[in-house]
Amino acid sequence: MSAIDRLAAARAKGRPTGMDYIDNLFEGFMEMHGDRRFGDDPAVVAGIARLEGMPVTVIALEKGHNTKEKVKRNFGSAHPEGYRKALRQMHLAEKFGRPVICFVDTAGAYCGIAAEERGQGEAIAENLMEMMTLRVPVVSIFIGEGGSGGALALAVADEVWMLENAVYSVISPEGCASILWKDPGKVKEAAECLKLTAEDLKTLGVVERVVPEYDGDLQKICGELRADLVETLRKNRRVDPAELAARRYARFRRIGAD
Amino acid sequence: MLRKDLFRRPKNEPEDYGRYTAKAHPDIPGEMCVLCPSCKEILFTGVLEDNRYVCPKCGHHFRMNARQRIDMIADEGTFEERDGAMHSKNRIGFPHYEEKLKQARLSSREREGVVCGTAKIGGYDCALFVMDSGFMMGSMGTVVGEKITRLFEYATQNSLPVVGFIVSGGARMQEGILSLMQMAKTSGAVKLHSDAGNLFVAVLTDPTTGGVTASFGMEADVILAEPNALIGFAGPRVIEQTIRQKLPAGFQRAEFLLEKGFVDSLSERSGQKEQITQLLSLHAKGDLT
């Protein structure tokens, strides 16, 4: 499959969203709202659940399925309060020793007046800093689109996994084509050049695991994810917290270091 | 100078990296006079140089290159460059990236978009990094990310404060995801420097946007901003396209960020060195009397 086809699949109508994974992977999800500073951002869903009995903190960028939901969720593009809500839950996870699991699916952090006024850049920056030294295991799973800093703000993790048709990029191919080549028609070329597919990113050492999609069979995908998550989180829970954070830094430290 | 020279591009790699002086900056061409974009006053370049590239009439802060900044802020003869020989490779095989890099090296006489080193400012030792808008608009690729990370790590090992002059269009598209990862990498280095009790002062200059705002640009203990500097996550054109309306005057300018609580203080060039010296003095270690 070419990069542009993967991109289309990642954005396809009817593709499972963050809530679908939460419902299928965990038991007894309790949603926790609000950042305690400004408000509650429906583009980010956060809460506590159990994974095979183990309490975990779950955070998802949520696009919504139908038009009404999509509007409510701002099409999965978070405002600063969304990232701050996520960080608040991560700090609670750290306090109570719960692993953190993030689901990423966003075209990017929202670009608007209110988002800038409330410090979109600052909110993302703080997440990057704080997640780097979080003293509990963190796994981020890209289930659809991974748009730039708005995706990275939930992906400073011990391991990053991607569904086989998910994408992750520094800029959308549309943005790249129009900014760099002044030609919005060159989206296909841009998608190729940016190396945004799961396979490419694994080759580049940016993701650890590519998860097969089994022709869209959500039960099968979740079955595999659940087993992998349990194994990885149990393994990482045994690692000393300082060592865990040091390994996380080393994971990012080597990218571009040669 | 003959007019035609202005349009001639040097063909070979420069041999005088890092020796760029005032007159060679793209915003201040090698001419006698320059027009102030803010008040439209015609200014002699000599006058502008003597005034730290600030318009004497309206206070407009012109862009400066990295070497000019270092000359302005570091105590004379104290700057020692680190990792100055690092240069970028075309890691993901992006079309025409090598040519872009070569052009940037020729026009800026720098090997990459940031200059790092150690210096004294007002007598205080510090690690200093200065980004250069003349090199692909200070965009952050793997080399910019690596140089800044190494500087923070060196500063952590040696308990030095870091002073950073920031100018950037954001992550460098031509390095794809690898440039995005530099946001996480630099943030990690800033966090470890911070956790060890060291000071980081950032001076945001025009423009500071994208992935640099959303990483080390906003992670400093003290954030200063030059007057009227454009500072934001999304660029104004992207926002206008998204919301389909014109942005209000002054939006995303330094004064706006000050009002919204994202900047500690404005920093006019006339008092900038004194301001930074005072901060270094207030945070000096082992000097609590």
- The unreliable regions of chain B are none
At the first level of CATH, the class of chain B is Alpha Beta
Strand content of chain A: 15-25%
Report mean pLDDT of chain A, rounded to a whole number: 97
- Per DSSP E runs of 2 or more residues, the count of β-strands of chain A stands at 8
The figure for the number of domains of chain B is 1
Strand portion of chain B, in percent? Answer: 15-25%
Per the CATH scheme, the topology name of chain B is 2-enoyl-CoA Hydratase, Chain A, domain 1
Which architecture of chain B does the CATH hierarchy give at level 2?
Alpha-Beta Complex
Task: Characterize the main sheet of chain A.
Answer: 8 strands, mixed
Structure summary, number of beta strands of chain B: 9
Name the chain pair whose interface involves the most residues: A-B, 47 and 56 residues
Taking Cα atoms only, what radius of gyration of chain A do you get, to the nearest Å? 17 Å
Order of helices and strands of chain A: HHEEEHHEHHEHEEHHHEHH
Count of DSSP H/I helices of chain A: 12
For the record, what is the CATH homologous superfamily label of chain A? 2-enoyl-CoA Hydratase, Chain A, domain 1
| Low-confidence segments of chain A | none
Order the strands across the largest sheet of chain B as they lie in space.
Answer: 3-4-5-6-7-8-9
Number of domains of chain A: 1
Q: Give the C-level CATH assignment of chain A.
A: Alpha Beta
